[in-house]
Amino acid sequence: MSNKAMLPELMKTHGISRRAFMKYCASLASVMALSPAMVPRIAEALENARRPSVIWLSFQECTGCTESILRSHSPTIEDLIFNAISLDYHHTLQAASGHAAEAAREQAMKENYGKYILVVDGSIPIKDPGYSCIAGISNLDMLKETAAGAAAIVSVGTCAAYGGIGHADPNPTGAVGVSEIIKDKPIINVPGCPPIPVVMTGVLAHFLTFGIPDLDELGRPKAFYGESIHDRCYRRPFYDKGMFAENFDDEGARGGWCLYKLGCKGPITKSACATIKWNNGVSFPIEAGHPCLGCTEPDFWDNGGFYKPLSVPAGDYRKAGVAAVAGGAAIGVASALMSKAKKAKAAKAHETVDAHDLEKSS
Amino acid sequence: MSATFERGLNALREQIDAPVASFFTSCVNCGLCAEACIFYRATEDPKYIPIKKLDLMRRVWSREFTLFGWIAGALGLVKPVTDKDFSDWETLVYDSCTMCGRCTLVCPVGNDITMMIRKMREGMSAAGHAPVELIAAAGRHADLGSPMGELHPALHAQVKHAIKDTGIEIEFDKPGVDYMVILSAQEIAEFPDVLGAMAKIFKKAGLTWTISNEAFEATNVGIQLGNRDVARVLVQRVVDAAEKLGVKYVISPECGHAYQALRWEGPNLIGRSYKFEVIHIIELLDKLRAEGKLKTKGKNTQKLTFHDPCQINRRGGINGEPRRLMNMVAENFVETDDAGTMNWCCGGGGGVGSNERAEGLRHAAFKLKKIQLEKVEPEVIVTMCAYCHHTLDNVLEEFNMDQEVMGLTELVAEYLDDDV
Fold first, then answer.
1. B-contacting residues of A 320-339, CB under 8 Å?
2. Whole-number Å distance between alpha carbons of B16 and B19
3. What is the pLDDT of residues B42-100, one digit of tens each?
4. Identity of the residue in B3, B21, B233 whose CB atom sits nearest the CB atom of A358
5. From-to residues of CATH 4.10.480.10 in chain A
6. Which CATH architecture has domain A229-302?
7. Which chain B residues are closer than 8 Å to A355 by Cβ?
8. Residue ranges covered by each domain of chain B
9. Residue A316: in which H helix or E strand, if any?
10. Is B128 at the interface with chain A, CB within 8 A?
11. Strand, helix or coil for residue A107
12. What's the ipTM?
């Protein structure tokens, strides 16, 4: 299945012109914030790319990430890229089932050992591995086994990247992201709940052409996660003017004002939502009138209420705050009592001053 | 007994309470009090920033009443307060503060800086670091009944003059009347015309009044010293005399700190409320005006302005009253900048006026008042405090300015309608 046809032949069989292909390379370059000079290199790299084998593992997930990537406005040239890779195992999409499915994975691993790309969506339970199994193999074991022969790992979605919703307090399954388990392989995090389709395909294309992209401190490609939604939001001028929607049916909400006070997490969320947008560039949550949930950030589920403004403290801060207040109050009461005793002592020691007592005897 | 450092430190400790602690902790060092202070504005010397004048008390508070202070004190990181500190701070607390209350009013976090200066003076006075003039005045006031000494003969002479001038009888120690008049020593010695003015107005209004031989002195050197024990004794004299005569009201005269002493501090000093009410003479005149018992005829045609005494307006709340009276008798009444509650102090209040050491500073501080006056160029400055009157007279002469100063009561009495 893998390492067979080269891209130009595939293009011919799919009726794609050279012009359309170059256009795709240019848009990919712009989406990844690369210089236009890179377009020919992208084209060259893609033309010469052999179809690498891709193994897609789904753990504790909702299939939203898969749904998202399927909606990359097909049929488009991105579809082709997915034809250009050899998706050898994806239990939602593949036709094979049961033993045949697992056999496909084992075969792909064996044939491409050390060269295949591992894509993961969903978190991995480590409290009791039995919480989530595929074909009788726990997620933890399957990840370790498959990761061992991978050239690189792409963690798709916030669950695979940082544990996501499974990891949310109180985290009953002990869910964690891939990077908590696998330490010896390059890992690219593509968080989002789900990630933008073109971001997923773009990251894969980058990997095919130039290898591992530049990553930020949370392992995200800087090309797509370099700026906050807030900095690129078309409602930013309202924020700057201090015009906020306070309610979902007030004048501000109807007028398209800033959603900060309705809990928008845009200022702390790095994602390309405001520029690339969704549904083939139609819209994104803020444009649809809903505050950003901050889904590309770790622990976004526990980051206070979705409708609480960022300025309201959340999570452990509250507990710490209560403890600090209680501790402070205790110290305060103790010192107040000591001070009071001191003052009382001073009052007791008071000697009435007579008008003739005002001079110092020298 | 005499004043000692230990007594002063102990008095300072007694003064530190929850408001003081919260004021020190809530100061944000914004510097607004600096801009509000006549002494800072006149000199621009940072040591005159009002909250800085309290640094010594702040040190006692933080060293002895805060957790960090205890720890730092135990480790020897903060210096204990010494008698030298008291003497270093004496001029800041007594010479460069008239307790005018302007800093308190502008403080954005609501710190009552003036009240803290008052508290700090408790410690300073008990430690023997009050200005010598105030100490001497306290002795005279305690022994002879007035900070200027024995004023009985002078008072009786002035009353006789007033009776002769007006033809109205003024009786001493008359029980059963409604009002008891007390006077400031300054009025008796320097501005006695106020006696005849009051006699005329009260007769027209049909008020019954008297003066007590036991307590005619309204001033209270204890308040200027910032010593509550001394202040209590002096307030008690007035209270005893008024309650013995059974009057309904005691009229606080045109004197700033006298009003502060009797009206606001008095009940706290003696620890109970009075059996009479305290009313300021200007408050009373405005009340009579409203009741139709004060009728005037004609108006003064000179250019008049009004100087608000800090203790009566800003710290006393009497703001609209003098203006209504001014408009009654003045044709050409002009207000200065900052008139009313934000008026600049004359520079002589809070004991600064009698403090010879502070003369230079007092004259420098007049700069702001001078700018106000030069802008308006009045012929006469009317006021309702004998000590403002006295201070303004002196500085106007010092600066070769030829404005006349007069009391509002006298001005109103001049235009009483004799036909009614």
1. 331, 335, 338-339
2. 8
3. 999 999 999 999 999 999 999 888 888 888 888 888 888 899 999 999 999 999 999 99
4. B3
5. 229-302
6. Irregular (4.10)
7. 138-139, 141-143, 221-222, 230, 233
8. 5-130, 147-288, 293-414
9. helix A316-348
10. yes
11. helix
12. 0.74
